[in-house]
Amino acid sequence: MEQELAYAIGHDQLVLHYQPQVCAKTGEMVAVEALVRWQHPTRGLLYPAQFIGLAEESGRIAEMGVWTLREACRQLADWSARGIHIGNMAVNVSALEFRDHRLLDSLQAALDASGIPPQRLEIEITESVLMAETETSQRIIERLRQIGVGIAIDDFGTGYSSLAYLKRLRPNQLKIDRSFVNDTATDSDSRAIVKGVVGLAEALSLNVVAEGVETEEQRAFLQDIGCHTLQGYWIAKPLTVEALEQWLLNRRT
Ligand code: C2E
Ligand code: CA
Ligand code: CA
């Protein structure tokens, strides 16, 4: 499978699906998150859980990351050129990629090739990047800020959430992990945690995104407590390019 993956990266077998993020108040689309899939010739469509680990272990994750950044930026430029308004583009970057300064080169190359403004790109990193904060990852993050690319902390609250790094790093955005969002209907502790994170984000002037919004009840609660942005199956599943464009058309009518 390792060899198959190496082959897949260079032969158009990877594909990005895009999941909308909408403003909690107005429902307006503010961004999409790019999520990678592998269209395997015999096994069908594979999800990240089935191959990201392999990509990391086999040292192919950087190559995959280069492709993902490039493709996501290209797609955003294509939508822009066609007058399709989708807002920003969020791309996941694995902790391993943050240990290699070449990430910056591929990011800059993706920006240059597509011509999209850096401000429209957001890099999603998990707390594990920050936990293992090395000199390299620190420098990469600083450089991202200089370039003007946004930084979002993914799965916020699940890792070792040191509040010190929020102060030092000043990400643009926190993404509340879906496990907390999921429990808000039944668990008052989860509601308190989600409220607390929204308050924390507010105090630090960060944008806050709730992930995994699956029900109207969750949506209403999140809107009520002032969460800015919503993402989840209740709004839309991750969609192919064609399906996303259709979804946008249907919303307008
Ligand atoms: P993530 O960054 O936390 O992405 C969100 C995951 O939650 C996605 O799974 C998405 O399909 C799923 N999701 C979204 N809304 C809902 C919902 O309402 N309910 C439920 N139950 N799930 C929802 P997916 O696409 O399978 O991706 C899994 C993980 O793989 C991602 O988690 C991310 O960490 C990683 N990943 C995805 N694409 C990339 C990539 O291009 N590069 C790297 N390094 N990692 C990626
Ligand atoms: Ca993510
Ligand atoms: Ca997440």
Write a concise keyword list for the protein shown above.
single chain, 253 residues, alpha/beta, 8-stranded mixed β-barrel, 21% strand, binds ligand C2E, binds calcium ion
Gist of the model:
The chain is an alpha/beta fold. The chain has helices at 2-10, 48-57, 61-81, 102-114, 127-131, 135-147, 163-169, 178-183, 188-203, 216-224, 241-252, and strands at residues 14-23, 29-40, 44-46, 88-92, 121-126, 150-156, 173-176, 207-210, 229-230. An 8-stranded mixed beta barrel has the order 1-2-4-5-6-7-8-9.
Tell me what you see in this structure.
This protein is an alpha/beta fold. Helices cover 48% and strands 21% of the residues. The chain has 11 helices and 9 strands. It has helices at residues 2-10, 48-57, 61-81, 102-114, 127-131, 135-147, 163-169, 178-183, 188-203, 216-224, 241-252; strands spanning 14-23, 29-40, 44-46, 88-92, 121-126, 150-156, 173-176, 207-210, 229-230. The chain has an 8-stranded mixed barrel with strand order 1-2-4-5-6-7-8-9. A hairpin with a 5-residue loop joins β1 (14-23) and β2. α3 (61-81) runs parallel beside α4 (102-114). It is globular and about 50 Å long. The relative contact order is 0.13. The model has no long low-confidence stretch (mean pLDDT 94). It binds ligand C2E and calcium ion (2 copies).
Content-based structural category: alpha/beta
The number of E-state strands comes to 9
- Put simply, the count of helices is 11
pLDDT < 50 runs, ≥5 residues? none
Rg from alpha-carbon coordinates: 18 Å
What percent of the residues sit in helical stretches (DSSP H or I)? 40-55%
- What overall form do the CA principal axes indicate? globular
Compressed to H and E, one letter per element, the order equals HEEEHHEHEHHEHEHHEHEH
Biggest beta-sheet profile: 8 strands, mixed, barrel
- The oligomeric status of these chains comes to single chain
Intertermini distance: 45 Å
Mean pLDDT level = 94
Query: Strand share of the residues?
Result: 15-25%
User: Which ligands appear in the coordinates?
Assistant: ligand C2E, calcium ion
The strands making up the biggest β-sheet line up spatially as 1-2-4-5-6-7-8-9
